[in-house]
């Protein structure tokens, strides 16, 4: 019996790497080529620049039936929005909202305007502009009695095999990071730079769009934008990246 | 007693480590098999594996090089590893290519369909056994 247990223990240890130790975590930035890094590092060549400018315009524009701008209530984003993105998804009421949903809540409730659609140019621009104010700050998601059930649900989804190819997120991003998937290095899946400018998309995109891409890659049915499952997964990923620095807007291949 | 039961189970498992009989009547075609293996949308093999495909620049390194697999494993052992590799290694990341049950949230366009057909599996197999 002991031999069997030992055998099983050795077997599991060598086939499943499990969670990445905190000190070994690396941003997707570190898996990129030199040119892509340089593109992200230089504010004037970062292709997300245009989204940031659009975001700033939207921030200052009076809108909706209330006729108020974000700036009318929040003032200078560099001050009022500093550190905010590092705390999202955050529990509002009884459930976690991601940053896009939080911004849309202000659109609807405070500006009395229609919510922006997921992946619309406006929502991506405003989200990038708000998140930019946290660049360089450590991700600050805490596991406590309120957040833990949602973090755990996100983790369960992350570790569950799915799709026709029957792959779990963890099998690539925890167990095989750094290896090559058809020539592409597998990163650790830290959501440090969202919304990102992705070269493959030739456009800005949200974290949810990126997650959907990975689900579709496993031939799984992706969860809907803004669904509880998606937000829980985002929350788990942000908690998993706690302490890592935000780089929004990042560039990714 | 328990440890003997375990060892016996393990040995039995090792012997059940193959599917000797072809999945389809027709004999596999190695040339078609090679094309399936090399195709990133059809076989997907090179996402994870390397192999003798000088024309394919992008190959994976998550799995053993396919070179020499025909001398490492018997035809029946390879067939089992294509049909349902979890039967050889429960932790495997290699997808089951001829299995439709026990899956979660399969995208509608793939639901109820195996990754490859029985004929395609036999084609791939006919190619892999040539990799000595």
Q: Can you walk me through this structure?
A:
The complex is a heterodimer of chains A (253) and B (132). Chain A has helices at residues 2-15, 34-41, 49-60, 70-74, 77-80, 99-109, 121-132, 148-159, 169-173, 207-217, 228-240, and strands at residues 90-92, 95-97, 180-181, 184-185, 196-198, 203-205, 251-252. In chain A, strand 3 and strand 4 (184-185) form a beta hairpin. Chain A folds into 2 domains: 27-42 and 140-252, Orthogonal Bundle (Cytochrome Bc1 Complex, Chain D, domain 2), CATH 1.10.760.10; 49-132, Cytochrome c-like domain (Cytochrome Bc1 Complex, Chain D, domain 2, Orthogonal Bundle), CATH 1.10.760.10. Chain A is mainly alpha-helical and 253 residues long. In chain A, 42% of the residues lie in helices and 7% in strands. In chain A, the strands form 3 sheets. A 3-stranded mixed β-sheet of chain A has the order 6-5-7. Chain A has a two-stranded antiparallel ribbon with strand order 1-2. Chain B is mainly α and 132 residues long. Chain B has a single domain (3-128), classed as Orthogonal Bundle (Cytochrome Bc1 Complex, Chain D, domain 2), CATH 1.10.760. Chain B is 39% helix and 0% strand. Chain B contains 6 helices and no strands. Chain B has helices at 2-15, 30-38, 45-48, 69-72, 75-83, 118-128. In chain B, helix 2 (30-38) packs across helix 6 (118-128). Chain B is globular, with a radius of gyration of 16 Å. Chain B starts with a helix and ends with a helix. The model of chain B is unreliable at 1-15 (pLDDT under 50). The interface between A and B is medium-sized, with 31 and 30 residues.
């Amino acid at each position: 019996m002991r031999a069997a247990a030992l055998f099983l223990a050795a077997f599991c240890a060598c086939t499943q790497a499990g969670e990445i130790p905190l000190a070994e975590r690396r941003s997707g930035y570190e898996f990129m080529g030199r040119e892509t890094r340089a593109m992200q590092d230089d504010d004037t060549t970062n292709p997300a620049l245009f989204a940031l400018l659009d975001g700033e315009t939207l921030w200052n524009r009076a809108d909706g039936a209330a006729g108020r701008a974000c700036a009318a209530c929040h003032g200078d984003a560099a001050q009022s929005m500093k550190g905010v993105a590092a705390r999202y998804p955050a529990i509002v009421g009884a459930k976690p909202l991601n940053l896009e949903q939080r911004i849309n809540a202000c659109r609807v409730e405070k500006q009395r305007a229609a919510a922006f659609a997921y992946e619309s140019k406006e929502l991506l621009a405003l989200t990038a502009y708000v998140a930019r104010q946290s660049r360089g700050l450590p991700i600050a998601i805490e596991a406590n009695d309120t957040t833990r059930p949602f973090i755990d649900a996100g983790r369960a989804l992350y570790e569950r095999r799915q799709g026709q190819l029957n792959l779990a997120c963890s099998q690539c991003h925890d167990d095989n990071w750094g290896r090559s998937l058809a020539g592409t290095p597998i990163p650790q899946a830290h959501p440090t730079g969202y919304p990102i400018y992705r070269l493959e998309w030739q456009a800005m995109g949200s974290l949810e769009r990126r997650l959907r891409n990975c689900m579709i890659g496993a031939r799984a049915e992706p969860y809907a934008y803004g669904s509880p499952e998606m937000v829980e997964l985002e929350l788990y990923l942000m908690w998993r990246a706690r302490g890592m620095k935000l780089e929004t807007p990042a560039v990714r291949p | 007693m328990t440890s003997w039961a375990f060892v016996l189970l393990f040995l039995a498992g090792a012997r059940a480590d193959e599917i000797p009989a072809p999945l389809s009547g027709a004999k596999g075609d190695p040339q078609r098999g090679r094309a399936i293996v090399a195709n990133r949308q059809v076989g997907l093999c090179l996402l994870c594996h390397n192999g003798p495909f000088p024309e394919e620049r992008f190959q994976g390194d998550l799995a053993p090089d396919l070179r020499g697999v025909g001398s490492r494993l018997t035809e029946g052992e390879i067939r089992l590893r294509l049909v349902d590799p979890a039967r050889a290694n429960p932790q495997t990341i290699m997808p089951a290519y001829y299995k439709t049950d026990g899956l979660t949230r399969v995208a509608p366009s793939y639901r109820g369909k195996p990754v490859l057909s029985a004929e395609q599996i036999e084609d791939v197999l006919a190619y892999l056994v040539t990799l000595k």
